[in-house]
Amino acid sequence: MIDLHTHSIFSDGALIPSELARRAQHAGLTGLGITDHGDMSNIDFIIPRMLEVAARLNEALDLKIVPGIELTHVPPGLIRDMAEKARLIGAKIIIVHGETIAEPVAPGTNQAALRSNIDILAHPGLISEEDARLAERRGIFLEISARKGHSLTNGHVAAMAKKTGAGLVLNTDAHEPGDLINEEFARQVARGAGLCEKDFDAMMANAASFL
């Protein structure tokens, strides 16, 4: 099980990275992305610190930590520049907080993100077929989310991915210890989105590309 979207105390998560990593390891994960919320105010602080933390943890654990960032509620017109800056600073994975129906994300965020140098569009809500096709063309993964609220549109996201060929990943968007899940539960989330075992294996293969 690989989970590429989690949060630590570097944004609004409850755990320091070491405890987050240990709890993920205990849940049976082999890969963990720590992708705290960021915008123009803090990415130059978060990313270098997480690069350092990940390097040390990767020396000590048999769990692979991938340091990154989730660009969150960034105005659509600024997403491209923020993604380029995050990449330049050294983020190994760049996620954009998509148009979830659970929050007032600015319209146009999905498309702006998909036209930027990012890796994953998180919880993209009622993503349009046009944007799903853009994700497929640009090789950007769409997220199936295990997080309450964001998971409400998993079925739609899965259907759009199936229709367009866009790649998927399954993440928890964990903020609290209880948000982390094991592989058995992740497979249930995938089935709940209308996906089969083959689809789940493909999502894990997509996630493994970051390790």
* Unreliable runs: none
Mean pLDDT: 98
Query: What is the CATH superfamily label?
Result: Metal-dependent hydrolases
Structural class: alpha/beta
Main-sheet strand order equals: 1-2-3-4-5-6-7
Oligomeric description of these chains: single chain
Could you give a short account of the major beta sheet? 7 strands, parallel
CATH architecture, by name, is: Alpha-Beta Barrel
Helix content: 40-55%
What is Rg? 15 Å
CATH T-level topology: TIM Barrel
Helix and strand pattern: EHEHEHEHEHEHEHH
Large-scale geometry: globular
What portion of residues belong to β-strands?
A: 15-25%
- The number of domains is 1
Could you name the CATH class? Alpha Beta
> How many separate helices?
8
The count of DSSP E runs of length 2 or more, i.e. the number of strands, is 7
